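Exam prep: given the inputs below (a chain plus adenosine-5'-diphosphate), describe the expected output before reading on.
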Amino acid sequence: MAKFIVGLTGGIGSGKTTVANLFAELGIPIVDADLVARDVVAPGSHGLQAIVNHFGVDILTPNGELDRAKLRALIFSQGEEREWLNQLLHPMIRQEMFNQVKNAHSDYVIIVAPLLFENGLDKLVNRTLVVDISPELQVSRTVKRDNVDATQVNSIISSQCSRSEKLAKADDVIDNQGEVSALKQEVHALHQRYLQLSGTHIAHD
Ligand code: ADP
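Solution:
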């Protein structure tokens, strides 16, 4: 039986985590693409072993973890290596995310993925939900959260698909430009909707 999956996305600092936490409070399992991406290269994983086989042990920190800064620098300057890494990791990440979905016990599951559209994951979910705020708010909230400078945030924003593209592709949109307290009501309404949709989805399966 295929489970009903909602893909939650939004640009950096839009409020994906904040929204996902509200769904989690309602008992909905959250599969976080960023966490899965970390798990597939954790010490002892096949992913990390494959990276070491390819790049050599210098890609590890002294305590045996993946040296992300080194890897980033390597793939930044070498397109072919970036391609190799993507070919290795994307299927692993996908597989693990869908294992987690399969093992969840609930009417529907939410996948949180910052690059849902960019990585084509939107094609594998039943419905997409975009958390939307202006780029100005993205910058100010991210600067405050991560203590980074605005230039850095702006360059991340421009590497992600644009606000209008995301909105055009979204089935549902949560406007997060107001107070956090306003989100609860929107999440509750969407939850009801997803329960309804997942019921129909299973009946037709
Ligand atoms: P994302 O997961 O999309 O990067 P977060 O959920 O971490 O975004 O939100 C970014 C930051 O903005 C966090 O520090 C969060 O607490 C804060 N935040 C989220 N929603 C609001 C809001 N409506 N008003 C003010 N701050 C918010």
